[in-house]
């Protein structure tokens, strides 16, 4: 599934360019010049690249995973004599006039993807995809790794700037390059760090407050007790141990695999 959105394609290329540049500055200009002979040099280089690997896998999965699109019907549906408020299991289903199909509760239409997406959160240009039921976990992992990478970069930059002049055997030109690259990477890391942390906070907040379900309950009438926060997080991240939630290797729960076309006619 590839969405032909120029803004999304630009954001993806910009993301990968920023990651490659950060790796180049950290390894070539910080580690090689300030801690090449210490075990900390190798430790930081390996740690930095492990985070980049995890970030890239979670980002790739968030980009290519189907966020939970509603399949279009094979033939046109006649909506004229169907009353969706008639009760029954599918009373909460709504009609999307753009897709001309039925959609389950919490599904919304995305104008960029041109589809209805199950439990759609928002369309994110940074993954050129919707954040929905099936890829929200990878999107959150991506945000966490961007935050960790930005934090690690900032620590290494501060270390490099403090230590680069201690033994001034370095060429002036080399020192200027180190400082220039460090300042650019500091700006990049600060911006990406703040941006990803803010979105991560909103994402976690929306999961544990079960926002869309609350709106759903208001419409329906019968009170559905609040689910525990861990149960809500498990719905998004899977049933495995919470530590495993950080690894971009397991799939989302199969619990959502309900039939897509499941309405009364
Ligand atoms: Zn739709
Ligand atoms: Zn979308």
UniProtKB/TrEMBL annotation:
Its main location: membrane. It catalyses: L-cysteinyl-[protein] + hexadecanoyl-CoA = S-hexadecanoyl-L-cysteinyl-[protein] + CoA. It is found in: Membrane. InterPro entries: Palmitoyltrfase_DHHC (IPR001594), PFA4/ZDH16/20/ERF2-like (IPR039859). Residues 93-220 form the Palmitoyltransferase DHHC domain. Its EC number is 2.3.1.225. It is an enzyme of class 2 (transferase). The DHHC domain is required for palmitoyltransferase activity. Belongs to the DHHC palmitoyltransferase family. This is Palmitoyltransferase.
